[in-house]
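QA checklist item 7 of 12: single-chain prediction sanity check.
[x] sequence parsed
[x] length recorded as 200
[x] structure emitted
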Amino acid sequence: MSTFVVFDLEFTTWPGALEQDWAEPGQLREIVQIGALRLDADLSVVEEYEALVRPVVNPRLSPYFTGLTGITQEAVDREGRAPAEALGDFLGFCRGRTALSYGNDMVVIGENAGWARARGEQLKHSVLDAAFVNIRPWLNTVAPATATANVGRLWQVLGLPKPAAGQEHSALFDCYSFAAALRHLTAHGADLPPGCLRQD
């Protein structure tokens, strides 16, 4: 069966960090949540992946991050996994497939994988095991109304029913918003970029 992955990340942030590209001392884009969906050729969900991750450099979440995502310190302390473990499992979920993000989330994956290795941690799979693609330019070209929307709002901008329980800035909900947008656009004649579907 041919499948591909859509994924989204939530990572540590502070007021103004996005505008300053995380340039302040000590501000790193450490992954706190990974969400991913494996989709088949009909863009139906075949499998989900979701994980909370414990940041290492900034283990205390900022109030700004918690307000944005709804992810609490208690949840991360209780359920968060070590970065190398969560990243390794996520890369295994993507292995041999194209993994689409709505933005440059693959850069953040690479940063976090590099930091884990620098700490002497082993990842079960490599970032080279999947083909990571930022599909935002294509999607914004096909549907210009989405140009200023984050991934969790794509369903709203396109006038679609809410795709899942939850809210934007929750990684798995954002993946469902992403998938709903892709289904809508392909149903209305858009062709996904070449190479998205690979035979499992």
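[x] summary fact logged: The mean pLDDT is 94.
[ ] second reviewer sign-off
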